[in-house]
């Protein structure tokens, strides 16, 4: 795991997705070709998820 140097800026992007419908899909990004691929649906549908990118890692909670 890379360590962040003290002088490197902390890169953070946060967004909140509000949706009145339930969502159960999941996708992954095939970086080589730059295309999103469908994956198995989530076992439990989600609503109103929060998404954050912190130091090039994507976090989705909800």
Structure, briefly:
The chain has 62 residues and is mostly beta strands. Helix content is 0%, strand content 40%.
Description:
- The protein has strands spanning 12-16, 26-30, 35-39, 50-54, 57-61.
- The strands form two sheets. Strands 1-4-5 form a three-stranded antiparallel sheet, with no helix packed on it.
- It contains no helices and five strands.
- The model has no long low-confidence stretch (mean pLDDT 73).
Secondary structure layout plus pairing:
Elements: E1 12-16, E2 26-30, E3 35-39, E4 50-54, E5 57-61
Antiparallel strand pairs: 1-4, 2-3, 4-5
Tags for this model:
62 residues; mainly beta; 3-stranded antiparallel sheet; two-stranded antiparallel ribbon; 5 strands; 0% helix; 40% strand; flat
Number of DSSP-assigned strands: 5
Biggest sheet descriptor: 3 strands, antiparallel
Structural class estimated from helices and strands: mainly beta
Give the averaged pLDDT, no decimals.
73
Q: Which spans of ≥5 residues are poorly predicted at pLDDT below 50?
A: none
Shape: flat
Count of separate structural domains: 1
Oligomeric category:
single chain
Q: Strand order within the widest sheet?
A: 1-4-5
């Amino acid at each position: 795991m890379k360590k962040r140097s003290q002088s490197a800026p902390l890169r953070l992007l946060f967004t909140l997705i509000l949706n009145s419908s339930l969502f159960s899909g999941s996708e992954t990004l095939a970086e080589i070709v730059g295309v999103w691929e469908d994956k198995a649906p989530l076992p439990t549908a989600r609503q109103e998820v929060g998404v954050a990118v912190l130091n090039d890692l994507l976090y989705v909670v909800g």
